[in-house]
Amino acid sequence: MSEQEETAEFATTTHPTAKAFFDALDTRSSSSRQSLNLRRRVQSLGWRNRHSQAKYYPCTVNGIGFSVKQVQRGEVDGTYGTGATVWPAALVLIKYLERNPSLLQGKKVADLGSGTGITSVASALLGASIVICTDGEDSVVQLAESNLQHVKQELTGDVLQSFSSEKFSVQRYWWGDDSMMGHQDCEVIIVADCVLPKLYPIAPLVQAIDELLVSPTSVAILSYEHRYYPDYHPRSKFEELATQRGLLVEQISGTKLDPVYSVDDIEIWHVTRRE
Ligand SMILES: C[S@@+](CC[C@H](N)C(=O)[O-])C[C@H]1O[C@@H](n2cnc3c(N)ncnc32)[C@H](O)[C@@H]1O
Known about the structure:
The protein is an alpha/beta fold. 35% of the residues lie in helices and 19% in strands. It has helices at 3-13, 16-25, 33-44, 88-99, 118-125, 138-154, 157-161, 202-212, 234-244, and strands spanning 56-61, 64-69, 108-112, 130-135, 168-172, 188-192, 219-225, 247-251, 266-273. The N and C termini lie far apart (71 Å). The protein binds S-adenosylmethionine (SAM). Residues 81-83, 86-87, 89-90, 113-115, 119, 135-137, 140, 174-175, 192-194, 196, 200, 204 line the site of S-adenosylmethionine.
């Protein structure tokens, strides 16, 4: 078979999924929403699970590199739940915050369900004045604390100042628990990949956000990875519970997300108090 014949045969017999993949790689292909989503998906192959198995998960914000330790067996053996690895939605959130610097600069930030602490560390590097890194699991809080110490060894000079004990703390906080968290007057609450109703009920998270959004100008910024549930849509459930508490949930347009670190099944939401 000649090369020309082979090319013609490939064009007519390519599996639809493979064809879609190659079309998506072709930047000249249609710019329809579907094609854009597909392109994002293909692009995400480069980062989405790239370091998920690594002992230390590397991250760069504003050109500053750091890494956090992961415990691979933490979820399987139940010692850490889901909090011992970095989830893709955390990266989408970090890169969104990096692209929109005014969201964090000079702000007091609380991170809920922080896991490894990667989003807290990134917030400090992105100019938050105070960061309170929290998780409900004791083992995960210890991991985040040890990651803080690890990051301090990686950084030098002025950047290291962001991690002094007055500026950066790690605490156990179980959503909705009566605690001092509500009195902290945090201006920004960040939450990466914690809307996971199969594992964690949504109501305590919404309650926690309601209790922590004390000022009318404070905002909760969540990254949400959509997973399929036959009975209901987690976003609708979250919105329903938030509305009952007088909160407004807005999905941020994809154009405001980092063009590389964004994909159609991970969304960014802003939650504020309705006027
Ligand atoms: C899927 S992990 C996300 C971790 C991290 N934010 C990330 O994106 O890499 C969910 C986290 O929420 C924490 N979590 C679950 N339910 C919680 C609750 N009721 N109170 C506080 N933390 C909770 C878990 O311990 C876990 O660290």
